């Protein structure tokens, strides 16, 4: 993570140069999928991979077309990525986890796991649209594979918590109805 010369913006390794430039503050473009200055460094791996993938997708023409055509979904994705990152930061900063490999799901609420599940589905949906650059498609699919291989993600505990959350937080129900559920490979 590097702070921009202007003192604003946070750069993560998976940001494209264009996204990093936009995130530096003054010229933030409204079609990104993650709000500028969102901190998600050193969070549990599936959260980091999910937010990184959304960042990577932000610069792609098909994604820009999607968010332009679906402004309500775009606003919900922005808020979802913010909420997912905040949950990760809350747990990271609480000092409860001994390390990133700690059994991390126990630190999250059912609603937070429900949001993680939806965010992963958004990555899967947007990461497979036609017209993505091959580099972005491969990067996003690699991150999705890592997420799917995480033993906690899609575990019995994960599924129970998603079920326990029911319809999930009200602000994301419209997005949930719009985004197909990702079926992990393997």
Detailed description of the structure:
It is a single chain. By secondary structure, the chain is mostly helical. The chain has one domain. Helix content is 54%, strand content 2%. It has 8 helices and 2 strands; from the N terminus they run ββαααααααα. A two-stranded antiparallel ribbon has the order 1-2. Helix 2 packs parallel to helix 5 (110-126), helix 4 (71-94) crosses helix 5 and helix 5 packs across helix 7 (156-164). The model is unreliable at 1-29 (pLDDT under 50).
Please render the helix and strand layout as text:
Layout: E1 2-3, E2 10-11, H1 17-22, H2 45-57, H3 61-69, H4 71-94, H5 110-126, H6 134-149, H7 156-164, H8 173-178
Antiparallel strand pairs: 1-2
Helix pairs in contact: 2-4, 2-5, 2-6, 3-4, 4-5, 5-7
Summarize the structure.
The protein is mainly alpha-helical.
What is the overall silhouette? Answer: globular
- Strand proportion, as a percent range, falls in under 5%
Ends: how far apart? 33 Å
As a whole number of angstroms, the C-alpha radius of gyration is 16 Å
Strand order of the largest sheet: 1-2
Query: Which structural class should the secondary elements be placed in?
Result: mainly alpha
pLDDT averaged residue by residue: 83
**Main sheet, how many strands, which sense, barrel?**
2 strands, antiparallel
- What is the percent of helical residues? 40-55%
Number of domains: 1
Oligomer: single chain
Which stretches are poorly predicted, pLDDT < 50 over at least 5 residues? 1-29
What's the number of helices? 8
Strand tally = 2
The ordered string of helix (H) and strand (E) elements is EEHHHHHHHH
């Amino acid at each position: 993570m590097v702070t921009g010369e202007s003192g604003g913006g946070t750069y993560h390794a998976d940001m494209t140069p264009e996204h990093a430039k936009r995130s530096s503050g003054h010229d933030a473009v409204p079609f990104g999928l993650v709000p500028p200055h969102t901190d998600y460094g050193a969070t549990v791996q599936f959260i980091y991979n999910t937010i990184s993938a959304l960042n990577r997708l932000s610069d792609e023409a098909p994604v820009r077309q999607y968010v332009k055509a679906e402004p309500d979904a775009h606003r919900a994705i922005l808020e979802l990525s913010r909420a997912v990152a905040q949950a990760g930061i809350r747990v990271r900063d609480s000092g409860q986890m001994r390390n990133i490999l700690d059994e991390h799901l126990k630190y999250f609420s059912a609603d937070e796991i429900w949001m993680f599940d939806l965010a992963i589905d958004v990555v899967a949906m947007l990461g497979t649209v036609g017209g993505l650059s091959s580099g972005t498609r491969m990067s996003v699919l690699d991150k999705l594979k890592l997420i799917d291989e995480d033993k906690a993600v899609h575990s019995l505990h994960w599924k129970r918590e998603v079920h326990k959350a029911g319809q999930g937080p009200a602000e994301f129900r419209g997005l949930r109805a719009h985004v197909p559920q990702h079926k992990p490979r393997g």
